[in-house]
Amino acid sequence: MKTDIFKFxxxxxxxxxxxxxxxxxxxxxxxxxxxxxxxxxxxxxxxxLRPDDVLVFNDTKVIPARLNGHRDSAQIELTLFKQENLSDxxxxxxxxxxxKENDKIEFTPDFYATVLKKNEAGSVLIRFxxxxxxxxxxxxxxxxxxxxxxxKREKGGKESDKADYQTIYARYEGAVAAPTAGLHFTQDLFxxxxxxxxxxxxxxxxxxxxxxxxxxxxxxxxHKMHAEYGVLTEEVADKINAAKRAGRRxxxxxxxxxxxxxxxxxxGGIVHPFCGETSIFITPGYxxxxxxxxxxxxxxxxxxxxxxxxxxxxxDRMKAAYHHAIKQKYRFFSYGDACLIEKQDx
Length: 346
Prior knowledge:
The chain is an alpha+beta fold. It folds into 2 domains: 235 residues, QueA-like (3-Layer(aba) Sandwich), CATH 3.40.1780; 78 residues, QueA-like (Thrombin, subunit H, Beta Barrel). It is 21% helix and 27% strand. It contains 8 helices and 17 strands. The strands form 4 sheets. Strands 5-6-7-10-9-8 form a 6-stranded antiparallel sheet, covered by helices on one side. The chain has a 5-stranded mixed sheet with strand order 14-3-12-13-15, with helices on one face. Strands 2-1-17-16 form a 4-stranded mixed sheet, with helices on one face. Helix 7 packs across helix 8. The longest helix is centred in the C-terminal third of the chain and has 13 residues.
């Protein structure tokens, strides 16, 4: 499938640089099964869902994954991309061509990294001088939140992003990008969802740096999806399967939750416990096995995430929805507004 099918033009002024305050005051585009559209806000979500719906959240926690260091007198900026073991990470490096094997990149006098290998497309394999919990402590000391490049910040970032770029239910550290659909939820909204009887379940998918990478091939068949580590417990799998048997809707919050749910399901739609990496790439023609609706943000043109929502809702339907959102000046991307997509009529 040609990548340019998923292209749309977005005015730069609609890219959100800051989240809505409060979080659930962000706008929400409700895309109904027949394709009609309703302009709402996220705080309306409890009134749009059914009392027996099940929301599935990704409780990964973003680590301060952007580091500013130096090699001799040269400044080096690294963004953690994928963890390989307790001390080794694949990273994206600005000016990676200047780096060579065995180079030492210093962040503080007792915290540094050594270049092990240079990979394709500007990525580098490094080994930190600390590992495990000690490495995480060092990252929290000197790292900054890894905001995507379309969010404009000074080099050191803003203190407010440490909270803004984290869901209120983040639990397990390991993500280098936020599951951004979840950023819209507040405790007040959770209380109202609970009052209505809407069940909340949690899985973990550590969002990788590949989220930031554009699709650089002209045909989706030639795109290699990045792998991300996820965990879906037996308890959660059992609850999802029981809900499905009872005819209740399963609604992932965000594309990361959706991808892990679909990765954990067999062809019969039964969800199994999952612990490992998934590189599932969902494009139009994919048969969804688990989900019945989707709560998600507005995604980048020609991105794997926009391809995914088009697979679920239909290309023409999503392009019409995005056209409406642009015309109505919805805010896009990580800190932007959201949409609730109902499964389309067939």
